[in-house]
Amino acid sequence: MFPIRCFTCGKVISRYWEEYKQRVKDGEEPGKILNDLGIERYCCRRIFLTHVETIDILSRYG
Amino acid sequence: MKIEVLKLSDEKGRFLLRETSSAFVNAIRRSAMAEVPKMAVDYINVYDNTSSLYDEILASRIGLIPLTADLNSFILPEECECGGEGCPSCQVSLTLTAEGAKMVYSGDLFSMDPSIQPSFPDIPIVKLADGQRVMIEAVARLGTGKKHAKWQPAVACGYKNMPKITIKDCDKCGKCIDECPKQLLSLNKELKVKDLMECSLCGLCEKACALGAIEVGVEEDAFIFVVESDGSMPVVELMIRSAEELGKKVLELKEDLESIQKDAGVAEIGQRRRT
After folding, report:
1. Residue A7 is assigned to a structural domain of this protein
2. Where does Zn(2+) bind (chain A) (predicted)?
3. Which of A4, B121, B135, B227 could bridge B48 with an S-S bond, Cβ 3.0-4.6 Å?
4. Where are the alpha helices (DSSP H) in B96-231?
């Protein structure tokens, strides 16, 4: 699952994840989406850029 | 001290403080981050959890959700009459019951006290697959940022000195303009600084200038103070509360010193300690 808050600064970032994911899928450039969503600092941005979603894989083995 | 508000919304604030010292500005910053109490989920009782996340991860995730509350109607568990065991004046429980397949959001938390609600209803907690269930009681308490970051109302709170850029005897070669990473300098008959407050004081323009015509310095008694709220309270309320907390500490110190003075036991001072 995507972290609720940024590890470094503590900003609540998970609420933007679903929109970000959808827009990346639709072909938008990640950097521009993050500017648009108001994720300014690089500490928050790296979490979006590097996150790998594993919850769907894990739930198969529940 | 003079305050000028540069930018202010519920989530973000930017102030210019003049005629003050870095010690005072830092005291306000520390107070906002570590001393202002707020509500957050402290522990959870798990009745059922067949989701893909461990109970501990769920507890951590729910704890980090900011809660808005009427802070005046609650007291810190340490100061409560119940001695921190838990009673209606120091804690509130929220319940979460969900069955998959669905995404569970912070808005699905049902609060026993309507004045306490998650600040944002759209924070994902856990994604449940078909047939997976969670049944949780979460207990929220007041706390301060020095104990855990979930009780920290100020996010990214900091300050810098007001930059001061002096230009004299410039030959308009324009080298410093290309060097500035924030592109703050412009040359139009005269070398000018576009937005002084944006200057990060990196000093690259100084190094680029062969004549030493540009000089980057700071105003020692002026500060740009930036603060963001995590959503549990508006920035204005956060700043007022941080000033209040700082004031309380100073008053405590004053009372202590006065009681020592009254006892007239100068030798005793070393043995006195506040818990």
Report:
1. no
2. 6, 9, 43-44
3. B135
4. 175-179, 204-208
Closest CA of chain B from A51, distance in Å? 15
Residues from chain A that touch B132, judged by Cβ atoms under 8 A, are 59, 62
- Which pLDDT band, with edges at 50, 70 and 90, does B88 fall under? confident
Find the mean pLDDT for residues B37-55: 94
Contact between residue B146 and residue B129 where contact means Cβ atoms under 8 Å apart:
no
- Structural domain includes residue A44: yes
Helices B22-34 and B235-263, axial angle in degrees (round to 10): 110
**Gyration radius of chain A over CA positions:** 12
Q: Which amino acid is at B160?
A: K
Q: Do A11 and B155 touch (CB under 8 A)?
A: yes
- Give the CATH number, domain containing residue A26: 1.10.10.60
pLDDT score of B272:
57
Identity of residue B176: C
Number of domain units in chain A: 1
What CA–CA distance (Å, rounded) separates B61 from B40? 11
State the pLDDT at residue A7: 94
B39 contacts B74 by C-beta, under 8 angstroms: yes
CATH architecture of B38-151: Beta Complex (2.170)
Using CA atoms, how far apart are residues B47 and B119, in angstroms rounded to an integer?
25
Tell me which long-range contacts B81-88 makes (C-beta under 8 A, separation of at least 24).
Answer: B86/B139, B86/B141
**Contact at CB, A14 and B124, closer than 8 angstroms:** yes
Q: Residue A28 is part of which domain span?
A: 14-61
The proportion of chain B whose per-residue pLDDT surpasses 90, expressed as a percent, equals: 68
Judge contact between A45 and B33, C-beta under 8 A: no
Task: Report in angstroms the alpha-carbon separations of B146 from B31, B132, B241.
Answer: 10, 36, 16
Structure tokens at B258: 């006065």
Is residue A4 assigned to a domain?
Answer: no
Closest residue in A to B153 (Cα) is: A10
- Per residue in B139-189, pLDDT tens? 999 999 999 999 999 999 999 999 999 988 888 888 888 888 988 988 888
